[in-house]
């Protein structure tokens, strides 16, 4: 028999706390949830409830939060553009397998750009293999009580990958302080989706995000 690489993907649907023992039976990925549905509610309920699984992630061992619901899947994704950016950002910063359920022969320009941003993919594929943690949850009250979240993880080069999320229905400011990231001094900030440097920031970064929108950043110490 020819030697070949095999990925052992375990589908326990999150039962029996599979993340706690899957690597001991040589599992490479393991589903942490039931099947994802084609809606914001389903995606958000799965994606934003992966906390506590971080200790079990390392190179070769990954929490699988199911396929991403982007692109054409018999019909184009019911998620809005902002919601698809949120899904891709969340899966990438959590180091989740980027499994696609869409028809690759019908990839439109938006989906191509969503899936092929190399700076965003670098966060998912970083050799350090860390899964991001939610470091801040806030309620910003406007017309509605809008929940916002900040996720962050250390990268191999010493920078921090940071994702800001607005789970609410209004456009609201979402911010992260360098103290929350356990960083000191001014930091350089780069917008990964726009592939644009945002310059030196003294103590924090803040941006107004639309309903179900996000922003993905790379934060570097000023040298």
Characterize the overall form: globular
Give the distance, in angstroms, between the N- and C-terminal Cα atoms: 53 Å
Helical element count? 4
Helix content: 10-25%
CATH superfamily grouping of the largest domain: Aldolase class I
CATH topology of the largest domain: TIM Barrel
Mean pLDDT: 95
As for the number of domains, it is 2
Cα-based radius of gyration, to the nearest Å: 18 Å
In the sheet with the most strands, the strands line up as 4-5-6-11-8-9
Structural class: alpha+beta
- Uncertain residue ranges: none
The topology string of helices and strands comes to EEHEHHHEEEEEEEE
Descriptive account of the structure:
The protein is an alpha+beta fold and 223 residues long. Helices cover 16% and strands 29% of the residues. The protein has 2 domains: 9-125, Alpha-Beta Barrel (TIM Barrel), CATH 3.20.20.70; 133-221, Golgi alpha-mannosidase II (Immunoglobulin-like), CATH 2.60.40.1180. The strands form 3 sheets. It has a 6-stranded antiparallel β-sheet, with helices on one face. It has a 3-stranded parallel β-sheet with strand order 1-2-3, with no helix packed on it. Helix 1 packs parallel to helix 2 (81-93) and helix 2 runs parallel beside helix 4 (118-125). The chain starts with 8 loop residues before the first strand and ends with a strand.
């Amino acid at each position: 028999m020819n030697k070949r690489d095999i990925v052992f993907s375990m589908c326990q649907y999150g039962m029996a706390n599979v993340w706690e023992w899957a690597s001991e039976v040589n599992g490479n990925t393991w589903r942490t949830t039931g099947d994802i549905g084609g809606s914001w509610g389903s995606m958000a309920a799965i994606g934003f409830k992966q906390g506590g699984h971080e200790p079990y992630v390392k190179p070769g061992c990954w929490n699988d939060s199911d396929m991403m619901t982007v692109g054409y899947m018999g019909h184009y994704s019911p998620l809005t553009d902002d919601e698809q950016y949120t899904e891709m950002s969340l899966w990438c910063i959590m180091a989740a397998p980027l499994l696609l359920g869409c028809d690759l022969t019908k990839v439109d320009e938006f989906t191509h750009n969503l899936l092929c941003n190399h700076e965003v993919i670098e966060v998912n594929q970083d050799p350090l293999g860390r899964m991001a943690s939610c470091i801040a949850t806030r309620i910003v009250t406007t017309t509605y009580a809008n929940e916002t979240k900040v996720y962050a993880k250390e990268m191999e080069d010493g920078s921090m990958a940071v994702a800001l999320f607005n789970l609410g229905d209004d456009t609201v400011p979402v911010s992260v302080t360098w103290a929350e990231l356990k960083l000191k001094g001014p930091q350089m900030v780069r917008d990964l989706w726009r592939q644009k440097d945002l310059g030196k920031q003294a103590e924090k970064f803040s941006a107004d995000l639309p309903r179900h929108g996000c922003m993905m950043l790379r934060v570097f110490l000023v040298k």
